């Protein structure tokens, strides 16, 4: 697979998984905004739930049926898209089956994210008071459950604002909104109905289809060197962003490895993919909902930055990447 095709698929995966994977945190009595953030982090890690999720993005409404369990740290999950071609995503640990019933085919992938649905949630190392302020705004009902409404306010235009509604009983996020410069939601994800911490039969996590005779496709496995020392650095990143991880990925039939550097500020991440140029050298911009990407060529390498941040952020990071001497 050419490196630019892998980069595009990786960027699309980051965009698709836009909401639902939470970081570790310490559970506790919620009285301050930080207490609520800590409770939420713990709840996302361990909560079993089933329900219906509605996502509004770019004026389009998508509905998902979700079943999610965690047993001994292993995530099992089933997500069924209620619109379009009836796509199902079945997850068991890090192995994910994307089931396409209209094509009678299954794509097998390996994901390392904590979950399929919530991804942009604050971690315990977010620096409130430096890049963001957080406030408890109100108490409302979402999906029939009492929730605390938190507002996360950015200090600059390099990141979005957030509103998060947390179940007062468990700390689980029932609704999230990504807020743009005009104080209006760019994306809105909400549980229309949910059952929390109820017994879920293992059969509820099985595919709705008999796929034994379908076509199965496996993504090429990558040889990864985690936390390698990269010669690539960003000379000018927005305040608060720092390197979270650096990997090199060896692709089949490709001599040069793909470099993947992740920058984060404790709430959002920006992925930077770097590989030798194999196509035209023109810069490229794209966006899906609140996710933006920018691609340019530096020293005969294609540099692509993608994340759920404003366009100015991915452009600044991508343009400032340099090979250290």
Structure explained in plain terms:
The protein is mainly beta and 325 residues long. The chain folds into 2 domains: 23-218, Clam (outer membrane lipoprotein receptor (LolB), chain A), CATH 2.50.20.10; 223-323, 2-Layer Sandwich (Phosphorylase Kinase, domain 1), CATH 3.30.200. It contains 3 helices and 21 strands. The chain has helices at residues 3-16, 33-46, 311-319, and strands at residues 49-57, 60-71, 74-81, 88-92, 95-100, 105-110, 132-142, 145-154, 161-167, 173-179, 185-196, 215-218, 223-226, 232-234, 242-250, 258-264, 269-276, 284-288, 291-298, 301-307, 321-323. Strands 7-8-9-10-11-1-2-3-4-5-6-12 form a 12-stranded mixed beta sheet. A hairpin with a 2-residue loop joins strand 19 (291-298) and strand 20 (301-307). The chain is globular and about 55 Å long. The relative contact order is 0.17. The model is unreliable at 3-29 (pLDDT under 50).
């Amino acid at each position: 697979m050419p490196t630019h095709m892998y980069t595009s698929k990786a960027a699309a995966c980051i965009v698709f998984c836009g909401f639902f994977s939470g970081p570790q945190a310490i559970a506790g009595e919620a009285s301050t905004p930080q207490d609520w953030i800590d409770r939420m982090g713990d709840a996302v890690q361990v909560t079993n739930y089933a329900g219906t999720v509605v996502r509004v993005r770019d004026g389009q409404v998508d509905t998902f049926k979700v079943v999610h369990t965690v047993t001994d740290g292993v995530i099992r999950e089933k997500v069924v898209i209620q619109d379009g071609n009836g796509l199902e995503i079945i997850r068991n640990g890090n192995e994910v089956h994307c089931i396409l019933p209209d094509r009678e085919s299954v794509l097998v992938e390996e994901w390392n994210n904590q979950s399929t649905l919530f991804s942009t949630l604050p971690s315990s190392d977010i620096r409130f008071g430096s890049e963001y302020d957080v406030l408890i705004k109100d108490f409302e009902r979402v999906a029939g459950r009492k929730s605390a409404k938190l507002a996360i306010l950015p200090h600059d235009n390099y990141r979005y604002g957030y509103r998060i509604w947390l179940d007062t009983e468990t700390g689980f996020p029932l609704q999230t909104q990504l807020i743009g410069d005009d104080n209006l939601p760019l994306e809105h994800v909400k549980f229309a109905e949910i059952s929390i911490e109820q017994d879920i039969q293992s059969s509820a996590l099985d595919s709705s289809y008999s796929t034994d005779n379908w076509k199965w496709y496996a993504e090429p496995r990558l040889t990864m060197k985690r936390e390698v020392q990269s010669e690539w650095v960003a000379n000018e990143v927005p305040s608060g962003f720092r390197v979270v991880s650096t990997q090199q990925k060896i692709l089949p039939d490709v001599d040069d490895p793909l470099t993947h550097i992740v920058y984060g500020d404790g709430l959002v991440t920006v992925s930077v993919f770097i590989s030798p140029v194999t196509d035209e050298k023109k810069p490229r911009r794209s966006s899906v909902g609140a996710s933006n990407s920018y691609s340019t060529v530096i020293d005969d390498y294609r540099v692509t930055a993608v994340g759920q941040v404003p366009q100015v952020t991915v452009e600044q990071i991508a343009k400032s990447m340099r090979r250290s001497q």
